[in-house]
Design a protein that fits this description.
The protein is of the alpha+beta class. It contains 30 helices and eleven strands. Strand 6 and strand 7 form a beta hairpin. This is Engulfment and cell motility 3.
Length: 715
């Protein structure tokens, strides 16, 4: 007698027959279950049939995934994967073009299932698709289905990309390089080439040799957004996989062709909004480009390098007009140099290279100072001379400030950090401005001098000034300025007094200076307001959220949606298409009873973070959470689209589990609600009744003797 927990109640459909409602015994072999179902419909040859999910992603049921079947699932009796693979294998080789087209179209759909893919590949079906591509005798429609099916089969990782022939790679590259190729074919080919590049260095070299950068850039200039996105994906794959030398050559080519400016003008500026996937690639392009400066940032100044010493002395000579140094004695010249380096703001004026030994920012600080001195010599001289002539301890040290400012910009722009797999926070200014790091430095070093004077700072206030400057830069960049001029105007308008006002406003929301009775009122109000936040969280879970699956082979897989049932008893989820914003709950094929949820994990404790240990950066860890269910053997893993969604979902799931909410969003919202409610309640403390109707105006008094006569002069 099977135990109750091994029994799952499901419905099984078949076209042209009444559904069967059965109690699936998970202990019974799947072949025996299928035979019983076939017997129920008097179907011979049960070995030719299999079970498949009827809704959503129609995946085959196997012994390895059958435990995922939940109560209420609807399955369908269909052809066994082996039989389906055999039929399609024959159909693809048919002499009838219509049969070939239909077979390849179906193949492109069913190849998403790994069970079918294994059967088809075991018959060398993928080699049949390769031959069709190499021969290139089919119509555009058939070729599109062929390439799509091939891509889906390869995406399972059953066959290595390195097994592909040079002829096949040349054909795929040819479709991309050709000017008159069908757009659907080019989309899939760009996708295939991206996967090749990411799979191995040898394929990267092969693809780089076959693909012309001119054609890849041309694909960015088409109106088809899918082609643009796929071309950008391939470009990012090439840049990320390339070695330092190849990467620099590619960037030099992109700069020569003004690709960044084109992206800004035709993708960012003209469209007004950028799709999530394209936003990610723009973020990656920004990150990879800025990271070209990482070697300089990690390298300290070499005192033995004549070139670096010359740059240091060039900074000194550009700032101070001195007499010919050749006529001075060694001691006199050494003393003069030390004095001028001290005026420049170096801490170690006898050996200024020591100031640049810290990494980061290393040599990058020397680069930014030299860029400012040569690109804007008047502003440089004005900064140095203005501060070197002060005798009141209020001088702003140029060198020390520049080194710290370079470090701050590296941290804000995340130079040295690898791009996140889910990041999309790019700066539009990056695409409208060459040498962004250096130009931002030139604006911000002058801002620093301005802020120093506004704060009437001394050397003891150095760290305080740098904190204000960091805040000015961060707040301005968060407003997404689209040009350097706009950034300059905004950051200079955000002066020290404005920063103080913003801080004061934010502090008012945080500081508590309430009397004891009011604090008591606050504690009494908390439960009511917490319940309000709980209901809001549950309502948000009922609305649902779109999540992205992250694959180890390809950066982004398919989208999936998760939402809570209106009665708060079921968590429904399933794969969806990108254009489906708010799918109905009936279309989500998977579900987990809330009663089965055992735990909520976040960050590095999540199973999908442990699997990729060492590969995830802090940004991804901050967005990751998982729920464990049944006997904690299974988990549903999430990576939230944003920190806000992370807070909403972890709070909502905590409510469902009967736990306290703990996110920063909850604390912020609770403080806002408490502040508003207390202010409203405090109005009643004045004992002034507020009537429903306006009060009647009283009659005038009988006399006005109470009035003071200002015409009389007081004695």
């Amino acid at each position: 007698m099977p135990q109750q927990k091994d029994i799952v109640k499901i419905a099984i459909q078949m076209p042209g027959a009444y559904p069967q409602l059965i109690q699936l015994d998970q202990k019974k072999p799947l072949s025996a279950v299928i035979k019983e179902v076939c017997d129920g419909w008097n179907l011979p040859g049960s070995e030719n049939y299999a079970l498949q999910y009827a809704d959503g992603v129609q995946m085959y049921i196997t012994e390895s995934n059958r435990l995922d079947i939940k109560n209420g699932c609807i399955l369908r009796l269909t052809k066994a994967p082996g039989r389906c693979a055999e039929d399609l294998f024959k159909g693809i080789q048919s002499s009838d073009a219509g049969v070939r087209c239909d077979s390849l179209k179906e193949l492109a759909t069913v190849s998403t299932d790994v069970t079918f893919a294994q059967e088809f590949i075991s018959r060398d079906g993928h080699l049949l698709l390769v031959k069709i591509v190499e021969d290139s005798n089919e119509s555009n429609v058939i070729m599109t289905h062929t390439l799509t099916g091939f891509m889906e089969l390869m995406d399972h990782g059953i066959v290595s990309w390195e097994n592909l022939s040079s002829v096949f790679i040349k054909k795929i590259a040819g479709f991309v390089n050709a000017k008159s190729t069908d757009a659907s074919i080019q989309q899939v080919c760009l996708d295939i080439l991206e996967s090749m590049v990411l799979s191995s260095h040898s394929l990267f070299l092969h693809v780089k040799q076959e693909i012309t950068m001119e054609r890849l850039i041309a694909h960015l200039q088409v109106t088809n957004q899918q082609i643009q996105t796929k071309a950008m994906a391939l470009l990012m794959a090439l840049l990320q996989t390339a070695g330092d030398s190849d990467r620099k050559d590619m960037f030099d080519f992109l700069t020569k062709k003004n690709v960044r400016q084109y992206i800004y003008k035709n993708i960012i500026h003209s469209s007004g909004s950028v799709q999530d996937e394209m936003a990610h690639y723009l973020y990656v392009l920004q990150s990879v480009t800025l990271n070209l400066q990482e070697p300089r940032m990690r390298t300290p100044l070499d005192c033995c390098s004549q070139e670096q010493r010359d740059i240091l002395h060039g900074l000194r000579q550009a700032a101070f007009e001195t007499e010919s140094e050749n006529s001075l004695s060694h001691e006199r010249r050494r003393s003069l140099c030390a004095k001028e380096f001290r005026k420049l703001g170096f801490s170690n004026n006898s050996n200024p290279g020591q100031d640049l030994s810290r990494t980061p920012p290393g040599l990058l600080a020397l680069d930014t100072m030299y860029y400012f001195a040569t690109r804007y010599p008047d502003a440089y001289s004005r900064f140095v001379l203005e501060n070197s002539s002060r005798e009141d301890k209020h001088e702003c040290p140029f060198a020390r400030s520049s080194i710290q400012l370079t470090l701050i910009l590296c941290e804000i722009l995340r130079i040295g950090e690898p791009p996140s797999e889910t990041g999309s926070d790019y700066h539009p200014i990056f695409f409208s401005q060459d040498r962004l790091m250096e130009e931002l430095f030139c604006v911000c070093i002058q801002l620093l001098n301005k802020t120093w004077k506004e704060m009437r700072a001394t050397q003891e206030d150095f760290d305080k000034v740098m904190q204000v400057v960091r805040e000015q830069i961060t707040r301005t960049l968060s407003s997404k300025p689209t040009s350097l001029e706009l950034f300059k105007n905004k950051v200079n308008a955000l002066n020290y007094s404005e920063i103080l006002k913003l801080r004061q406003t934010e502090r008012l929301h945080q500081e508590e200076t309430l009397a004891p009775p009011v604090l008591e009122l606050k504690e009494r109000l908390k439960p009511e307001l917490l319940e309000l936040i709980r209901q809001q969280r549950l309502n948000r879970l009922c609305q649902g959220t779109m999540f992205r699956k992250i694959s180890s082979r390809r950066r982004q897989d398919k989208l999936w949606y998760c939402r809570l049932s209106p009665n708060h008893k079921m968590l429904h989820y399933g794969d969806v298409e990108e254009d489906m914003e708010n799918p109905p709950i009936e279309t989500l094929q998977e579900k987990i009873p809330v009663a089965d949820i055992k735990g909520l994990l976040t960050g590095k404790d999540c199973p999908h973070m442990k699997e990729n240990k060492g590969k995830q950066n802090k940004e991804v860890l901050d967005l990751a959470f998982s729920i464990t269910y049944d006997v904690e053997e299974y988990s549903l893993n999430f990576i939230a689209p944003s920190r806000t969604d992370f807070c909403l979902w972890t709070d909502g799931l905590s409510v469902l589990l009967g736990r306290e909410m703990s996110s920063e969003s909850m604390r912020s919202e609770l403080e806002i609600l408490l502040s508003m409610e207390i202010k409203l309640r405090l109005l009643d403390l004045e004992n002034v009744p507020i009537p429903d109707n306006a009060p009647v105006v009283p009659k005038p008094p009988s006399n006005f003797n109470f009035c003071y006569d200002f015409s009389q002069t007081e004695q």
